[in-house]
């Protein structure tokens, strides 16, 4: 299928979608996101009913407080340390929700009731056994947690007292978490995601991504972990034992790919991973090579062996989050920044064909901009970007919609606007290509503009 032309969405259309006609509520179709509220003890999960036109209505019980505090990112234009995926996950049976409190170093666990309300399980929230938990993945009765150690408001830990880590917990019958094991990450690497294989529940993957460098010559914008520039990344292959013990099988460095101007990569820095996800039916791992604007493909074995199969170009800037559908025919990536050379004005979502032989050689068949109202600013890499940009995503259980969270990333003092935290829904057409259906500003729902909402999950109950 030929590459589809970029679908530009104007602000006028976006505003029209906000004022769409009334909809019929769909009982039992819910969506949840985390506010990542930086006010002490005010972090929360917001619940929504999902509707057939892509719109959402808030749950009357909102907010469901997590018992902790989100991670503050007033880093003067630096995108991190909110580099993460799956800070909120839902169990396979749709009965429990897990989410992180990044600044409080805890994990909250909720029972999801039939009416979509959330109820803490006994003992929630639970210590994450690390600093700044940021990603979760469930494997049967095991919960995996990555602790980034990237909260610069816990500076003593960030600058050497503690190490980042991957931890495993046993999920008790009540939903309570029992700590089992920890794998510490050496040399200052910072995890962004942990993910259990969809075809082998005894195998999991982690990726570390750290950019702590003063690209623009103004140290106040970067250098969170120390006074020296540090740009590095790697991947882990883990084994999950029957007793929920986590052990490392392999430590993987990314292969170098094209960093030329053609793909608008980042020459001078290594090839690094950000988002990752496994194929739902084949032993393949997809990885966003964020500094190369490439999508990488790895094949892995049951004993933890892993082989790089190659990479393909991505039309966006900073490919970050990766998500395939259940059929293994389409894969979506959220690309954090626009490509000026392609006349993009905002972050994009790319669609890849991964069916058949394309599973190991994906083909990008479409890209669509994520509407971002507001201004622009000069980021820490010394180029202009929108005040708000796209982060995590999820698919509805029936895979008719793709939901994307946008964050107000411009937390500089110059930004006086309170806009930018938005939940978008994209309807997937018969080819699996997304088309904007609805956009919901999250400020009126109680998301403080100084916070950056993160994590999104959908469930049918």
Automatic annotation (TrEMBL):
Keywords: Signal. InterPro entries: Quino_amine_DH_bsu, WD40/YVTN_repeat-like_dom_sf. Coiled coil: none annotated. Transmembrane segments: none annotated. The keyword Ligase does not apply. This is 6-phosphogluconolactonase. Residues 434-461 are annotated as: Disordered. It comes from Paludisphaera mucosa. Residues 1-25 form the signal peptide.
């Amino acid at each position: 299928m030929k590459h589809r032309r970029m679908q530009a969405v104007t602000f006028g259309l976006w505003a029209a979608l906000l004022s769409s006609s009334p909809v019929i509520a769909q009982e039992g179709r819910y969506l949840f996101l985390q506010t990542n509220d930086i006010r002490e003890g005010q972090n929360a999960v917001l619940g929504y009913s999902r509707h057939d036109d892509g719109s959402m209505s808030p749950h009357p019980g909102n907010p469901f407080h997590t018992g902790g505090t989100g991670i503050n990112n007033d880093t003067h234009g630096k995108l991190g340390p909110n580099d993460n995926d799956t800070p909120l996950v839902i169990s396979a049976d749709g009965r429990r929700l897990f989410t992180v409190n990044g600044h409080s170093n805890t994990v909250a666990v909720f029972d999801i009731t039939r009416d979509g309300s959330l109820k803490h399980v006994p003992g929630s929230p639970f210590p994450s056994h690390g600093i700044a938990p940021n990603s979760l993945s469930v494997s049967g009765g095991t919960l995996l947690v990555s602790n980034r150690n990237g909260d610069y408001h816990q500076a003593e830990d960030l600058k050497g007292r503690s190490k980042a880590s991957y931890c495993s917990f046993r999920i008790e019958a009540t939903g309570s978490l029992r700590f089992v094991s920890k794998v510490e990450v050496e040399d200052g690497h910072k995890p962004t995601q942990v993910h259990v294989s969809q075809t082998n529940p005894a195998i999991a993957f982690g990726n570390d991504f750290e950019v702590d460098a003063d690209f623009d010559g103004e140290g106040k914008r970067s250098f969170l972990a120390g006074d020296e520039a540090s740009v590095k990344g790697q991947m882990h292959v883990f084994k999950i034992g029957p007793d929920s013990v986590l052990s490392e099988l392999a430590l993987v460095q990314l292969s170098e790919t094209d960093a030329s101007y053609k793909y608008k990569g980042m020459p001078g820095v290594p090839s690094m991973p950000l988002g990752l996800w496994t194929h739902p039916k084949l032993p393949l791992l997809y990885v966003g090579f964020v500094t190369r604007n490439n999508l990488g493909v790895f094949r892995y074995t049951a004993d933890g062996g892993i082989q790089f199969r190659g990479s393909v170009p991505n039309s966006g800037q900073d490919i970050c989050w990766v998500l395939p559908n259940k059929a293994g025919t389409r894969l979506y990536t959220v690309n954090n920044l626009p490509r000026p050379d392609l006349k993009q004005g905002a972050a994009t979502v790319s669609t890849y064909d991964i069916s058949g032989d394309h599973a190991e050689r994906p083909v990008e068949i479409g890209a669509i901009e994520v509407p971002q109202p507001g201004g622009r600013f000069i980021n820490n890499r010394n180029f202009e970007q929108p005040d708000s940009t796209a982060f995590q995503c999820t698919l509805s259980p029936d895979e008719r919609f793709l939901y994307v969270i946008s964050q107000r990333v411009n937390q500089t003092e110059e930004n006086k606007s309170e806009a930018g935290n938005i939940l978008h829904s994209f309807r997937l057409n018969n080819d699996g290509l997304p088309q904007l259906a609805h956009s919901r500003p999250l400020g009126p729902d109680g998301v403080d503009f100084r916070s950056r909402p993160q994590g999104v999950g959908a469930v049918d109950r």
